Amino acid sequence: MRFDRITIDPDKMNGQPCVRGLRLTVRRVLDLIATYPDRMELFREFPELTDEDLAQVLAYAGAQLPDRVAELADLK
């Protein structure tokens, strides 16, 4: 997947991945998604964000996680 809305600039936000060059890091937007379950409220507070931004932040975060199988203890 191409993340065209995620930017990384060593001179901005210490090189952390941001949304479209804004001073909103991927991590901060993930926190906002968790804090504002009502998307309309989130967009009122942060009108610079779009649905496409949120979708790409979630996809980018998911792509950074390793895809591995975790063994669970047998509960019998």
Please outline the helices and strands:
Blueprint: E1 6-7, E2 18-19, H1 26-35, H2 39-45, H3 51-64
Antiparallel strand pairs: 1-2
Helix pairs in contact: 1-3
* Annotation, overall tally of beta strands: 2
Which bin fits the share of residues in helices?
40-55%
Radius of gyration: 15 Å
CATH topology: Arc Repressor Mutant, subunit A
Order of helices and strands: EEHHH
Strand content: 5-15%
User: For this structure, what is the CATH class?
Assistant: Mainly Alpha
Biggest sheet statistics: 2 strands, antiparallel
General description of the model:
By secondary structure, this protein is mainly α. The protein has one domain: Arc Repressor Mutant, subunit A (Orthogonal Bundle), CATH 1.10.10. It contains 3 helices and 2 strands, in the order ββααα. A two-stranded antiparallel ribbon has the order 1-2. The mean pLDDT is 93.
List keywords for this structure.
Arc Repressor Mutant, subunit A; 3 helices; 76 residues; two-stranded antiparallel sheet
Provide a compact summary of the structure.
With 76 residues, the chain is mainly alpha-helical.
